[in-house]
Write a structure and sequence with these properties.
single chain, alpha+beta, Rossmann fold, Elongation Factor Tu (Ef-tu), domain 3, 6 domains, six-stranded mixed beta sheet
Length: 666
């Protein structure tokens, strides 16, 4: 597994000459580079040591106007070879490149003190001390320094030995690649007879080449060109100029791509080649940032910047979300001017709007942040949980911070993981994994144990409050509970999650459900004492023998009470199943409704087609035409009958319909 290394350093300090001396390959391939004697584009070379260890070298330009190209070459490499000319010593771009390397998290490397053939021993020592001062406080502070000359060959043997040792150490250090395949494209070209070829450093995962049968390339892993989502088929992989079967995270590779929409000019620097299952593009990022070495603190006010991520350079607006931490780090929102690909942990560099100064950088902690509430205390707690480098600890912290849980798809997309990897992480926590709660394709919703306890307690408290306010409370609908919980929790729980919680609490015996309403298991709805006394008086007038439900006004007149007071008691009694609201102004006892249902049952039993008409019901019940229509519409409403053409059929037992009616509004 080859070591991937980039050069860094000021223009004209001998980076390309050093690569040529180490590999025999001139990394400056463009005519303009040869004419001007200056690296303009990324150059590439390979070195294979006698011991078998391979090194892939990316030579970057050192000019201040080409920092974007330098960043594109440095992203994702294993280590760096900082090149400083002994006669010049560290210069402006030496310092800026070191700052960028630090922001990119590159902490392994060495220093090549070049052009020692031009200076005496004293100057070599002075230059070495200048380099040490430059690197102090960075990840490269302890990097070995090799005085070398590409002209005389002095010191090259020691540098080559370090390269071989570093390559062997990198191979031993690398674990199995994690995450879905992603390659940041830094170069794309058309190869005659082969088609489109892209090169870049594999940022995560593995891509497997297809095999060739009967002269036709069989596709390996399904791929996409991102952020545009163009499907691609892998025809082959090269590394170091040779065909290979696979490319893994940390390796440099050239991918030969094919597909209906894959042609010259479609893919270029800044694009990504990703697994088909990888998440889509984003136009917002939340990141953990530091100011660059020697730069002022990142500004509190929003400002326009250049964002370098992967091999892309995109304009954006930076808005700080949190005050600086003890180490100077800040959480910030980056709003991009065009979509890009990003995943958790991707390193980024920020430069000013003119592209002249490096401001800072850091890493992505959430590539798909919400648009609203970006700087709320709750959101900042969530971001700190996202920032945890351990995916299991991050998931556990998120589930502790998020009151309504997190879907597998959301965590997988942000961390660039396969769904099965998220399932394994969730299983290692105490989270509840709820299926059929999230939207299709989102996977299960994972709810932390503390969040589940809070939600259970809030549901119980909301129901208890409703029961205490109304002894006749027949239970709360999920919609009413959501409104109550929004006040208690600060936001309403998603309907599907609330439904799952309610079903779970019913199964556990904490709640009872009646006609789609939920109540505490200990709650027994009853009329208030005053209502009970009034309803007992009303029952004598409701208990009719002729099946004719009385009007509210008739009951009120008989009792000498105001009609609104009578209507209120009857409404509350109907919610408990003690009475049935036949129409806006008529009520009946359940026994009367059963009698009316019995009329329909006799008519159905006598009819050849098991249906009855409104006229037949009127003539048999003797309740009159207008009341017949109201009664039949009521029976339809509670699900006892169903209108079919000019007749009606019985579709459910009356007892079940009356039981379901309790607490309803029919």
């Amino acid at each position: 597994m080859p070591l991937t290394l980039c050069t860094a350093g000021h223009v004209d300090h001998g980076k390309s000459s050093l690569v040529r001396a180490l590999t025999g390959t001139d990394p400056d391939r463009l005519p303009e580079e040869k004419r001007r004697g200056m690296t303009i584009e990324l150059g590439f070379a390979w070195r294979r040591a006698p011991g078998g260890a391979a090194v892939s070298i990316i030579d970057v330009p050192g000019h201040e106007r080409l920092v974007a190209t330098m960043v594109a070459g440095a992203v994702g490499v294993d280590c760096v070879l900082l090149v400083v000319a002994a006669d010049d010593g560290p210069r402006r771009q030496s310092a800026e490149h070191v700052a960028i390397l630090d922001l990119l998290g590159i902490a392994r490397g060495a220093v090549a003190l070049t052009k020692i053939d031009r200076v005496d021993a004293a100057r070599r020592g002075e230059a070495a001390q200048e380099v040490r001062r430059l690197l102090a406080g960075t990840g490269l502070a302890a990097a070995p320094l090799f005085p070398v000359s590409s002209i005389t060959g002095e010191g090259m043997e020691a540098l080559a030995a370090w390269l071989e040792a570093e390559a062997q150490a990198a191979e031993a250090r690398r674990a199995a690649p994690e995450g879905l395949f992603r390659l940041a494209v830094d170069r794309a070209f058309l190869r005659p007879g082969a088609g489109v070829v892209v090169t870049g450093t594999v940022q995560s995962g593995t891509v497997q080449s297809g095999t060739v049968q009967s002269g036709t390339a069989r596709a390996g892993d399904a791929l996409r060109i991102a952020p545009r989502g163009i499907p691609a088929r892998l025809r082959g992989i090269q590394a170091g100029g040779a065909e290979v079967e696979q490319a893994r995270a940390g390796e440099r590779a050239a991918l030969n791509l094919a597909g209906p929409d894959i042609r010259s000019g479609v893919v270029g620097r800044g694009d990504w080649v990703v697994a088909a299952a990888a998440a889509g593009p984003t136009t917002r990022l939340d990141a953990l940032l530091h100011a660059a070495r020697g730069a002022p603190p990142l500004p509190a006010e929003a400002r326009a910047i250049h964002l370098h991520i992967g091999a892309a350079d995109v304009t954006a607006r930076l808005a700080r979300l949190s005050p600086p931490q003890a180490d100077g780090a800040v959480l910030a929102r980056l709003s991009l001017d065009r979509p890009i690909m990003a995943a958790w942990g991707d390193r980024l560099v920020l430069r000013d709007a003119a592209g002249r100064a490096t401001l800072g950088g850091g890493r992505v902690v959430d590539p798909f942040p919400p648009a609203r509430g970006r700087a709320s205390a709750e959101r900042l707690d969530e971001l700190r949980a996202w920032a945890n480098p351990d995916p299991r600890a991050s998931l556990a912290a998120l589930l502790a911070a998020l009151p309504f849980g997190l879907t597998s798809a959301r965590f997988a997309a942000a961390r660039n993981l396969a769904p099965e990897a998220v399932a394994a992480l969730a299983a290692s926590t105490d989270a509840q994994s709820l299926a059929d709660v999230a939207a299709p394709g989102e996977g299960p919703l994972h709810l932390g144990p503390e969040a589940a306890k809070r939600l259970h307690a809030a549901i119980a408290a909301a129901l208890g409050k409703a029961h205490a306010a109304d002894a006749a409370d027949p239970g709360q609908t999920p919609a009413a509970l959501r409104r109550a919980l929004a006040s208690a929790l600060g936001a309403p729980p998603p309907p599907a999650l609330l439904g799952a919680m309610l079903r779970g609490m019913v199964a556990a015996g904490a709640l009872r459900e009646l006609a789609g309403r939920f109540m505490l298991a200990s709650h027994r709805p009853r009329l208030a004492p005053a209502d009970e006394r009034l309803f007992a008086r009303m029952e004598r007038h409701l208990a009719v023998e002729d099946l004719r439900p009385p009007r509210v006004a008739e009951i009120a007149e008989a009792l000498g009470l105001p009609a609104p007071a009578v209507a209120g008691v009857l409404q509350r009694a109907a919610r408990l199943g003690l009475a049935c609201r036949i129409a806006a102004n008529r009520y009946a006892l359940p026994a009367t409704v059963e009698g009316l249902a019995a009329v329909a049952q006799r008519l159905v039993a006598a009819a050849p087609d098991a249906r009855f008409s409104a006229a037949a019901f009127r003539d048999t019940s003797h309740i009159g035409r207008n009341l017949t229509i109201e009664v039949l519409e009521f029976l339809d409403r509670i699900g006892f009958t169903r209108r079919e053409g000019e007749g009606r059929a019985i579709v459910a037992p009356i007892g079940a319909c009356l039981a379901a009616l309790a607490g309803g509004e029919a």
